[in-house]
Amino acid sequence: MTSGELTRGEAIDQAVGQVYTTPDYYEVGREKVREFARALHDDHPTHWEDAAAKAAGYPGLLAPLTIVAIMGAKAQFQLVDEVLPGNLLKTGVLQVDQKHVFHKPVVTGDRLICDVSLDSHRTVVGGADLFTVKTVVRELDKGVMQESFTTLAGQGDSGSGLPPEFEQAVDDIMFSGGDKHRLPLVRTEAAAIPDDHPRPTSAIAFDSVAVGQELPGRSVPFTRGDVINYVGVSGDPNPIHHSDDLAEKAGLDTVVAQAMLTLGTAAGYITNFVGDPAAVYELSARFTSPVYVTPTKPAVVDYTGKIKSLDPETKQGLITFGASMGGKRVFGRCTATVQFS
Hints:
Blueprint (H helix, E strand, L loop, with lengths): L7 H8 L3 E3 L4 E2 L2 H10 L10 H6 L13 H15 L10 E9 L8 E13 L5 E11 L3 E12 L9 H10 L12 E3 L29 E5 L1 H11 L9 H6 L9 H16 L5 E8 L11 E13 L4 E10 L2 E2 L1 E9 L2
Helix pairs in contact: 2-6
């Protein structure tokens, strides 16, 4: 770097706040809702049965809360790949935090577009970069549906990135031709975020729950087939989710389950207790440990939850939840804000 040139961190800082959008929409399909619910082990009837969705007040099948990961992750990948300086994907990044804010429920037939921007960036002790990508999901007629904030950790200016042999190994096993029809992101203005009011839901009654009440526990086995199925359902191209060789080269014990697979399943765990997926207003978690999935034995993740607080005026509640595998925490600092009826 010569005098007057920006460091990678400085160049990233200049990109903070610039908003880009996907130039085409993603239409939510009826079978895609079921396919995604199946991948998340989510049996809530509003995802599967038209009559159940209609009875709950929705015009079509209700999509699982994290279905926007399909189009949102692709838009985030494009932002990091096309807009942010420093070829961050080649330096090795790790997802550490995820937060969702739900404004309107997504149903079949919705036409979704994603606005993505770098929301914040900072360098922490040791020189590592922490940057948060904001994704605003809008429906062409309904406006803002969801917001998500994905925090990634990178090596920073002092990092050397992944070795050339690793990059070549990735190129040799990645899905080929996937970007052939990818449209470049387009600069846009930030969307106005609605000032939400409590919305009617078919959630369980406020009077039926109490502070300190524990949610029934749930154990979910994630097999190698589950992980690979989620690769196809979500479009996640990362080879650490299907290649033992690449996972080991990246310093992992073996293939790991997707963070959004385990968090999406946690969302279903919450919504099945609350009674209506649209009753969840916010969901956030910190990823603390990888879920390793061997070729021959499922990784069993245990989900637990507790009602932390209740507001009698709004009939809203704060649920803390967690996930562990073999006694080791998978998530940390997990909360869900929900609306009871």
